[in-house]
Amino acid sequence: MRRSAALARSRDAARLAADEIARIKAEYLVEAARAETERIEAEMADAAAAQLVALRIAAEAAEAAEAAEAVGLAGRDEASARALADAALKEAVRLEANRSAAEEAARRVVEQLQAERAAAVIAQRGERELAEARRLAAEDAERLEAERVAAKNAFFLAQRLAAEEAARVEAALAAAEETARRSALAEAVRLKAERIAFEEALRVEAEQIAAEAAAQVEIARLAAQASARVEAARVEAELAARLEAERQAAEDAARVEAMLMAAESAALAKAARIAEAHAARLEAARIAEVDAALIEAARVAEADAARLAAARIAEADAARREAARIAEEAAALAAAEKIAAAALEAAALAAASAVAIAPSKQAEPKSAADTVVLLADDSKVVRIKTNRLLLNNQFQVLLAEDGLDAAKQIAARLPDIIITDVEMPGLDGFELTRQLRESPLTAHIPIIMITGAESYEEKAAEAGVDVLLGKPYPESVMIEHIHRLMRVGRKVAGEAAIA
């Protein structure tokens, strides 16, 4: 609005100045103006110089606008660019005002000169030179109009440059915002990828820690078993040492007692000899003192013998109690084994009777969901891992911690397949297999044995193992053996498959 008002005022002032100049020149200019032509041209040159100064100032404003554009692009600061554009606009308005003032000053000078010319022309020349003066005035008016148009074009140029600068600044800001948005989106994607990678690393680390904990538990169990075996050996050694010590103590006590008796006899004989040799010389009091000494020596000897006998009796009682405890534990273990064997035998007889009564027919292979697999292994880690494999393949699973536990569970419920380890406490895999093959009830059950040694092939075949799997083995191989054994049954004893 300010630029439009200034432009309208400039146009009005120029129009009024031109009308006034034309009117004055038409009435007063005379041929005397020719005499003053050189002076007027000098003054007009000064006015033209003022116009040139105005144009130079406008050019400087345009350069300032271009500098504002460069600063706006470098700093991408919309506020600074707009401030520079406003400053350029104010400078253009100021230049327009200066131009108007210069035109007004020129008009006044022209009016004065024209008045002087008119007076001179009226006095000297006439109508001919008045027409010439009018022509010159018209030329001056045209020149002033051209200068006004040039100034107006310069103003419009400055205004256009300011608008273009504002548009460039706006575009630069939009580009900067788009770049920032894309950078923020890329950063968000990168942070999400890093978070997912971090969570995956945490999961892997947790699985590793769980596996290490399971391994440590297995190591602790093995160490506890080894400690138990060492403790049993130590207890047996201590019992033997205690018995030997009791025997030595008894012999030492016998020797001490014999020495005391011999000393007592020697003392009594010596006292008798002394009493007989000095009976005449010793008084009744002396004889009493000797008797008292002999009695005290006998009392001390008896007390020592009683103390040694009591200690020997206490040690013998402790040894007997420890031997009785060990014997009770051994008897309990033997009784448990006998109970398991009796249960197997009873179940075998019952199954044999049932088989003899039931009609014989070819049974269809069981599905995985109906197949019961007994897993006997003293390693908790192996039991957990193999149990997960069997359950994932729809099998029913029974878990036994060792051979004795497996025998008890077999007596309670016959499995369809048995998977056993070799080395287990109480009853190992070979002995378990032999007992199962000797019983009519369990002789038909296929047995898969797992071992890390390659030297058990012949021993496994002799015991009656159907499949001997070496560690480590592929899980698919284990499942294939189970399905095959359920389809075709076990092989003849001594023909174990080695995998």
TrEMBL record:
<dbReference type="GO" id="GO:0000160">
    <property type="term" value="P:phosphorelay signal transduction system"/>
</dbReference>
<feature type="domain" description="Response regulatory">
    <location>
        <begin position="372"/>
        <end position="486"/>
    </location>
</feature>
<dbReference type="Pfam" id="PF00072">
    <property type="entry name" value="Response_reg"/>
</dbReference>
<dbReference type="InterPro" id="IPR011006">
    <property type="entry name" value="CheY-like_superfamily"/>
</dbReference>
<feature type="modified residue" description="4-aspartylphosphate">
    <location>
        <position position="421"/>
    </location>
</feature>
<feature type="coiled-coil region">
    <location>
        <begin position="85"/>
        <end position="179"/>
    </location>
</feature>
<keyword id="KW-0597">Phosphoprotein</keyword>
<dbReference type="InterPro" id="IPR050595">
    <property type="entry name" value="Bact_response_regulator"/>
</dbReference>
<keyword id="KW-0175">Coiled coil</keyword>
<dbReference type="InterPro" id="IPR001789">
    <property type="entry name" value="Sig_transdc_resp-reg_receiver"/>
</dbReference>
<protein>
    <recommendedName>
        <fullName>Response regulatory domain-containing protein</fullName>
    </recommendedName>
</protein>
